[in-house]
């Protein structure tokens, strides 16, 4: 897998994938029957038109790395200081190049069109998927597939994620409560933002327990609550920051509405004011049932039934979720053996797994177009 090692040694951050995209473009251009387009500055799409007409299917790989110093100890470690492929996007890119290479020689057996999407900037919202979609490059696609490497599952085993929510949506907020400072012994002359903040934190606990339907996975975490400098001074401001995870659009809206109501009403009740920055990042991936079953059957056909398993929902967020705006999607995982988690400086990939990933991708694409 010299492609993967080359990309691993030369990682680039989100929106800066200049050399990676150039490299991918060169490899794609060296393959027969593949047309290359550049829908965004650092994204590449390879298009393979089969000999016979049919549907259009897309497989997506992401190409960006993360801002961290590699500590994996592999001989082909990152040559760039403080940049590392610790989410395995190098493996995704290499596998999809492998898939493109295999299919490019099978034009005569292909009914329809295949898009190989090499996407930039998965790791940094607003994410690269939105750019590619907005460029209009994918409007003819009938189905999207994606595959993410995941440690601590057997190397080369394909994990089919659940139908429906396969990852979570993440929203974040930053709240400044503006009170009125005073001497600690004269609370009646101030408006204490710590008391207001504490009331908000307590009330927010009721969103998951009292508003969201039981059993629907939802998390509201206040990760930051800062105010004041001295024991005998009432501060004039407090800052709270939170992360919110949901798995459906309805719950996502409900949670946002309830959080805003609680903040607005409690600050009012205490005579304080506030500034709120509520940011919605990626939605949840919603896997399609028919595409999931096809992926399961195709992967089992080439790898054997024992190498395909039901993977639990990913609690992380992924901008692959946006492709569902165009057509149904199916996102799956590929086990890469025991090791450190994604986004860890010691993250490694058992490269033996990647051949299975390519085999499964090729079969899924062929089966989708020929079904
Ligand atoms: Zn990641
Ligand atoms: Zn990733």
From TrEMBL:
GO terms for biological process: diaminopimelate biosynthetic process. The keyword Ribonucleoprotein does not apply. Mn(2+) binds at residues 87, 89, 123, 148, 343. Its cofactor is Mn(2+). InterPro entries: Amidohydrolase, Bact_exopeptidase_dim_dom, Peptidase_M20, Peptidase_M20_dimer. It comes from the Bacteria. It comes from Pontibacter flavimaris. Residues 174-269 form the Peptidase M20 dimerisation domain. Keywords: Hydrolase, Manganese, Metal-binding. NCBIfam families: amidohydrolases (TIGR01891). The Mn(2+) ion enhances activity. This is Peptidase M20. Pfam families: M20_dimer, Peptidase_M20. GO terms for molecular function: metal ion binding; N-acetyldiaminopimelate deacetylase activity.
């Amino acid at each position: 897998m010299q492609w993967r090692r080359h990309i691993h040694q030369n990682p680039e951050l989100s929106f800066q994938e200049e050399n990676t995209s150039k490299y991918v473009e060169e490899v794609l251009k060296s393959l027969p029957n593949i047309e290359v387009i550049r829908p965004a500055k650092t994204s590449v799409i390879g298009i393979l038109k089969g000999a016979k007409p049919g549907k259009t299917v897309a497989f997506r790989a992401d190409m960006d790395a993360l801002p961290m110093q590699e500590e994996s100890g592999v001989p082909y470690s990152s040559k760039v200081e403080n940049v590392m492929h610790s989410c395995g996007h190098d493996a995704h890119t290499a596998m999809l190049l492998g898939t493109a290479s295999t299919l490019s020689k099978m034009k005569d057996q292909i009914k329809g069109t295949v898009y190989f999407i090499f996407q930039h900037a998965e790791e940094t919202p607003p994410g690269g998927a939105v750019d590619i979609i907005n460029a209009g490059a994918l409007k003819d696609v009938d189905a999207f597939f994606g595959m993410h490497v995941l440690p601590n599952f057997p190397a080369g085993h394909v994990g089919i994620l659940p139908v429906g929510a396969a990852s979570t949506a993440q929203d974040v907020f930053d709240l400044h409560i503006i009170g009125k400072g005073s001497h600690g012994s004269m609370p009646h002359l101030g408006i204490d933002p710590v008391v207001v903040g504490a009331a908000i934190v307590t009330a927010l606990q009721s969103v998951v327990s009292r508003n969201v339907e039981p059993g629907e996975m939802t998390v509201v975490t206040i990760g930051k609550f800062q105010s004041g400098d001295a024991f005998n001074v009432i501060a004039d401001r407090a800052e709270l920051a939170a992360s919110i995870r949901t798995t459906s659009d309805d719950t996502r809206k409900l949670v946002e509405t309830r959080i805003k109501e609680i903040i607005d009403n409690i600050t009012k009740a205490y005579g304080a004011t506030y500034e709120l920055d509520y940011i919605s990042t990626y939605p949840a991936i919603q896997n399609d049932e028919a595409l999931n079953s096809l992926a399961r059957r195709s992967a089992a056909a080439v790898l054997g039934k024992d190498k395909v398993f039901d993977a639990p929902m990913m609690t992380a967020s992924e901008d692959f979720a946006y492709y569902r705006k165009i057509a149904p999607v199916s996102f799956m995982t590929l086990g890469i053996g025991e090791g450190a988690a994604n986004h860890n400086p010691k993250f490694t990939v058992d490269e033996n797994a990647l051949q299975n990933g390519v085999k499964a991708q090729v079969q899924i694409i062929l089966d989708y177009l020929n079904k």
